[in-house]
Design brief:
heterodimer; A: 260 residues; alpha+beta; five-stranded mixed β-sheet; 6 helices; 5 strands; rod-shaped; B: 556 residues; Nucleotidyltransferase, domain 5; Alpha-Beta Plaits; 2 domains; 15 helices; 46% helix
Chain lengths: 260, 556
């Protein structure tokens, strides 16, 4: 039987079979297409996830360790801050119920009068400005900064006067301090720089220095925030020795992200 | 082993044969026959007969005879089977369009040897489909395997059980008013036909002549009819009284039988035929003197032929065997029908109504297509389920892994944030430590100076401040640096040695004294001056993240 005879004899059957086969494959393709594409997509996701998981990453144990380290460092910073940063005494803090500007004026006025008068009575002349800016600040944040610096100034002036200083000059309370976020150089602390020049007769500076160092360390009022100290040579003509002190007042900053 | 059944719906009775066939050996297993009641059709009688049997029959082949079936002989070209099929389909459509009704047909090439006829002849058997449908309906629940002309059944019986004598033989099945004829030679079929005769009315004619009813007339015929009267032989007065009124009905028989040869010559185009013998069979074949009558008139040998004699009757019950013995030649067609089913090598001419043919086609071929379709659907469904399962599993795994990736990324981000925080805290702590160290260092230095500064060395100035630690091998750090300047007492002895000893003692106070304390001195014009630069602060960075950076390697 040649092909033509075979075809003619079984044409209907073969046509049916071919139709069935076509329908089968079409149905298989239609049904398989969606499932296959879903399967392929899932496989792609699995490959992508495997690739992601193969990367080196910090795990939960490292997170716990880092968290513990962060906590330890925070506690350590708190401890160091108590040694390095002068605390703000209550009367220099702006009460919540008072106007910052009014409190500033009252406190600086009182201090000018009381502290300078007391110093003069001890034969010590104190810089009239007490390091305050020529123009009174109006912004609450700036007021708080100046008052914090003034707190340190008052304590140092008292020590100077009590140590027999001739005069206390060039008091400066910096209104701004640069704060760097960088690890390299600069400080993360937003501090108020304070500098004071205390003038003594030769031979009297040592006691002042001893008092300053003691005050900075073990005083009940807490550290003064001493960051610089310069004892200059004796000026022969004036028979005086100048001690230039640098302080930094401030508080622990809030870490970016809210962590203190 | 094949079990097959044949059902002969005769003019006066029905006969049912069931036989087992194995490797050409045929064994009768059942034989049933009954006569038709008045007003009862043959199919109804068969349904009644078989319905009474406890044992259900297999699918039966039912015989067709008389005017119910038309047999046509068509010369066909010698072409491929599929062309022949197209040709016959066309022919059948033509017949249907002329008849105006549905026709059930079957056709097969006449098995005539090539040397007798150089052309092919197609035997086409045609029956009205409504007739078949009605017959099937009357047969009730009987499973009809198909229909075949009695003439073909006769031929198949001869093929399976005949002597295959190499002479032109006419097989004649007498059954009341119908006559089934098959002209054979050896195993070749030359011609087959079923015709109706006047013999069916013989009982009525005799009943009318004798003034009695048909049943009694039939009984009288069976007892006294003797066709030798037509040959001039004398018989008893009763025989003459019975035979003479109906003899004229038998007179055309020789002409009719001889005419078969003539028809065969014309329709099957077999020109050189000469009838050599006649084999009589069927319910009426045993009529007294019929064989002699036909032999005398046709001048050929006429013999009775009972195919049941050639079958193994051991499978029959005693009652069935007795019935078969009583019916003698009547069972020929039923046997031929059963053999047509049992032996696929016999001549096939099977007629079915279109519905039954479709049903059979479906059972034989369509069912496989349906099963293949079902298998394909099952495969698609299973494939869909399996693939869906794989896709769902993959999606689940992907989702799980994505969760793991998110968790890992979250942990990693947290660690990076914490690392940044730690770094920030370290910087802050280092700054605070530097600031705190200024006071501590200054205190220590003051105590040291008061205790250790030699009396011959005078300190003129000093400065302590936070400075960059680059000069002290601590780059990037803010450290407390002390600078002192002084001079030696005028006239003092070996001030440089005294200063060196002082500086050395100072260096011992610090772990890394050589790097922490940098002394220098000069002696110009008898004036000894000294300076000292020292870092007085330990490295505050006792906590760092280097260790963590190391640990992160290899973690995922």
């Amino acid at each position: 039987m040649n092909f033509d005879a075979f075809w003619q004899t079984h044409r209907r059957f073969l046509t049916g079979i071919m139709g069935g086969v076509v329908v089968f494959f079409v149905a298989e393709m239609i049904l398989g297409a969606t499932i296959q594409s879903e399967w392929a997509a899932s496989q792609q996701k699995i490959r992508a996830s495997s690739s992601q998981l193969a990367k080196q990453r910090y795990g939960a144990s490292q997170v716990a360790e880092l968290r513990q380290r962060s906590t330890d460092l925070e506690a350590w910073s708190q401890s160091l801050a108590q040694q390095a940063l002068p605390p703000l005494r209550a009367r220099f803090a702006v009460p919540a119920s008072a106007s910052p500007a009014q409190h500033y004026i009252q406190e600086t006025g009182r201090l000018r009068n009381e502290l300078r008068s007391w110093a003069l009575r001890q034969n010590c002349e104190v810089d009239e400005s007490l390091g305050l800016p020529n123009v009174s600040p109006t912004q609450p944040a700036m007021i708080a900064r100046i008052l914090r610096g003034l707190d340190v100034v008052e304590r140092v002036v008292q020590l100077g006067v009590l140590s027999g200083a001739q005069s206390i000059e060039n008091i400066s309370i910096g209104s701004r301090a640069r704060r760097s976020k960088s690890k390299k150089g600069g400080s993360l602390l937003d501090t108020i720089p304070i500098s004071i020049e205390v003038v003594f007769e030769p031979g009297l500076a040592t006691g002042f220095l001893r008092a300053i160092l003691a005050e900075s360390g073990e005083s009940a009022d807490g550290p003064l925030g001493l960051v610089g100290l310069e004892v200059q040579e004796i000026r022969s003509k004036k028979k005086e020795r100048r001690v230039i002190l640098s302080f930094a007042a401030g508080e622990l900053p809030l870490e970016e992200g809210g962590q203190s | 082993m094949t079990r097959a059944s044949g059902l002969d719906l005769g003019a006066r009775g029905v006969r049912f044969v069931e036989l087992d066939s194995r490797k050409g050996n045929h064994k009768l297993t059942r034989y049933l026959s009954t006569t038709r009641e008045s007003g009862e059709s043959a199919a109804q009688a068969a349904a009644l007969l078989l319905g009474q049997q406890k044992k259900k029959s297999t699918a039966v082949r039912v015989g067709l005879t008389g005017s119910d079936v038309m047999m046509r002989y068509l010369p066909v070209p010698e072409v491929e089977d599929w062309r022949l099929e197209r040709l016959m389909e066309f022919e059948i459509r033509e017949l249907e369009s002329r008849s105006g009704g549905s026709l059930a047909t079957s056709y097969n090439l006449l098995p005539v040897p090539r040397e007798v006829d150089d052309e092919d002849t197609m035997l086409l058997s045609v029956v009205r489909e409504d007739l078949l449908t009605a017959t099937i309906g009357e047969l009730g629940g009987l499973d009809v395997q198909g229909f075949s002309p009695n003439a073909v059944a006769l031929y198949n019986a001869y093929l399976a059980l005949g002597d295959h004598e190499n002479s032109t033989t006419l097989l004649a099945n007498f059954d009341g008013g119908t006559l089934d004829l098959a002209l054979v030679r050896g195993s070749a079929l030359y011609f087959a036909r079923s015709v109706s005769t006047e013999l069916g009315s013989a009982a009525d004619v005799l009943a009318q002549t004798l003034g009695t009813d048909r049943a009694r007339a039939r009984a009288v015929m069976r007892k006294h009819l003797d066709l030798r009267l037509a040959l001039g032989e004398r018989s008893g007065p009763d025989s003459e009284r019975v035979t003479r009124p109906i003899l004229h009905l038998f007179e055309p028989l020789p002409t009719l039988l001889s005419g078969v040869v003539t028809l065969c010559k014309a329709q099957a185009r077999l020109h050189d035929l000469a009838l050599e013998r006649v084999l009589l069979t069927g319910p009426s074949a045993g009529t007294n003197g019929l064989a002699e009558f036909l032999a005398a008139r046709m001048r050929v040998t006429c013999n009775l032929w009972n195919p049941a004699d050639m079958l193994d009757p051991s499978g029959l019950s005693a009652a069935d065997a007795a019935e078969l013995a009583q019916d003698t030649t009547a069972s020929a067609v039923a046997i031929g029908l059963a053999l047509s089913v049992a032996d696929p090598d016999l001549y096939a001419l099977e007629i079915l109504p279109s519905d039954a043919r479709k049903k059979r086609d479906f059972n034989e071929r369509g069912i496989w297509v349906v099963l293949a379709g079902l298998a394909a659907i099952v495969f698609i469904v299973m494939d869909f389920i399996v693939t869906s399962g794989r896709a769902e599993e993959a999606a689940r795994v992907a989702k799980t892994m994505q969760r793991q990736v998110r968790a890992a990324e979250s942990s990693h981000r947290q660690a990076l944030d914490l690392q940044e925080s730690v770094s920030w805290q370290q910087t802050l702590a280092a700054d605070l430590a530097s600031r705190a160290s200024v006071r501590a260092s200054a205190s220590r230095m003051m105590i040291f100076l008061e205790a250790e500064l030699p009396a011959t060395l005078w300190m003129e100035s000093c400065r302590m401040q936070l400075d960059k630690g680059d000069d002290f091998n601590r780059p990037g750090e803010s450290i407390a640096v002390l600078e002192m300047n002084g001079r030696g007492e005028e006239g003092a002895r070996m001030p440089s040695a005294v200063f060196a000893a002082f500086a050395s003692r100072l260096q011992t106070l610090f772990p890394d004294g050589e790097h922490s304390v940098l002394p220098s001195s000069s002696n110009r014009g008898g004036q000894f001056t000294w300076s000292l630069r020292a870092v007085l602060q330990d490295n505050p960075s006792s906590l760092d993240t280097d260790e963590l950076d190391d640990n992160s390697e290899g973690q995922s």
